[in-house]
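Ticket reopened. Same input as before:
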Amino acid sequence: MASSTYEPKNRFIKAVNQQLPILSLIHGAVGAGYRAPKNLNYWWNFGSLAGVCLVVQIITGIVLAMHYTPHTSMAFSSVEHIMRDVNYGWLLRYVHANGASMFFIVVYVHIFRGLFFGSYRSPREMLWFLGLVIYLLMMATGFMGYVLPWGQMSFWGATVITNLFSAIPMVGDSIVAWLWGGFSVDNPTLNRFYSLHYLLPFVIVGVVILHIWALHIPGSNNPLGIDVKGPQDQVPFHPYYTAKDAFGIGVFFLVFAFFVFYAPNYLGHPDNYTEANPMVTPPHIVPEWYYLPFYAILRAIPDKLGGVIAMFAAILILFAMPWLDGSPARSARFRPIYRMLLWVFVADTFLLGYIGANAPDDVLHLGGVEIPFLILGRVATAFYFLFFLVIVPVVSRWETPLPLPKSINEAVLKKSAAKA
Amino acid sequence: MATQTEADGVTRRDFLYVAGGAFAAVGAAAAAWPLIDQMNPSADVLALSSTEVDLSNIEVGQSITVMWRGKPVFIRHRTEQEIAEAAAVNVASLPDPQTDAERAMKPEWLIMVGVCTHLGCVPLGQRGDYNGWFCPCHGSHYDTSGRIRKGPAPLNLEIPAYEFLDDTTVKIG
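Engineering reply: fixed in the latest deploy. New output:
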């Protein structure tokens, strides 16, 4: 990586930077000192968007914590207190609640970007693994955050998810009692979830720093998936990508604001505005939308332990992608058959999400045909694993990629010549 | 160096490293245990582990739900028909084989933890394909003895430890 060094003109700044080269660090990480491929498209905006989401969640979360009470007898009413009495409390809570959904949307697009353009391939495996660790931490944080308002979905979601661990042979029940701090989800559970929900975002910040560090060793991947050959293939991150990221943030905030101001409860569940009642299970328990595909996989397997294993495997299998994919080309742009199957896989995850939102006993009416959701869920789950275990390894090794451009620079010049 | 080197290249310093490292590991594990064990049920939670229930007001065909250890416990005064249905089942055909007599100390009183053995939801009474309990979360059906008959739950509804203090009082836990 050819990079310019940071040379401040102001004597005072120069002296500070000499003793603590933090400005040089920023310059090299997200400033003019970091040179990125010049053909990055808008899919590459989602990394910085995810960073923005994390900052929004931490800021709103810290101020919400000033008004929230983590006790079973007061948690629900303290959230209503935030909504009704605290100045701008409604805004802060809606930003935080919808911010979680926005964070997951952004991260799902970011993960898809990596899958499509082969960003998990050598030499970026470590970058990919760290990203998946962030995703796992996000799932844990999001789950525990959803428990805090102590509504019916909070309580029963917590009950179902913690009970997943009871499927572990021999020690399952002891582990669940340990997680609960009792014989059911109760005050000790709420307290520890609150503690961890406050802690984990800062752990995520730490892993994000590692993620960015690991990004800067090989540098960014690009839509062509070919290596950078020289300085003619790159532009400095600042001002080119800082400007592009800033534009993306502006568009993203419009979407975010639409949900916060016009549909603040659209992505939530009305049952969570009923206070938790350990004696009554709501007729239909669903997790937050971002877990629905995995929830569908859990329910598709008729065996309890098997379902739990399949659900965790569905996420952990992403760690194997660098080895499953053996194509000579990174980017799906040059792999038409694989690309088509990848889109089918994306459709399958949406279908799983839809199935996860419906009761397993229900039936999907498609024209005149009736398909039970249970059967549909099993087929969709089978395809999910078929994609990773058969389609990726076989198609990537069998399909001959289209000819790759000689360099990023050549491809960019050819494209602009064709436009002119 | 004054350290004597053995024939195989192992020095006294190596031994000190291993012994010192092992000691530090034991110390770290001992320090970690209180941090782990603090999450287990505390003394006050364990102390609230039994409850007494008066059964005299429950008519035949009625159920009540009482709270025990933060969980619902179903107490059902079963009808003759329900007892007969529960007893007539071929035990060998069940996913979790148990006779009705093993599950109900007195046949008219069925006392069990109202928590689905799948993922912990509270099943609804007198529903489902077997006229027993039905869990709305993932569709497990239990019979009139609370035994799993259909769906993803692996086990029958749990029977808590209980004893009849007299004809109309039961102590759970």
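The first helix of chain B runs from residue 12 to 37. The beta strands of chain B are 51-54, 63-68, 71-77, 109-113, 124-127, 132-135, 140-142, 148-150, 162-166, 169-172. Please confirm and we'll close it.
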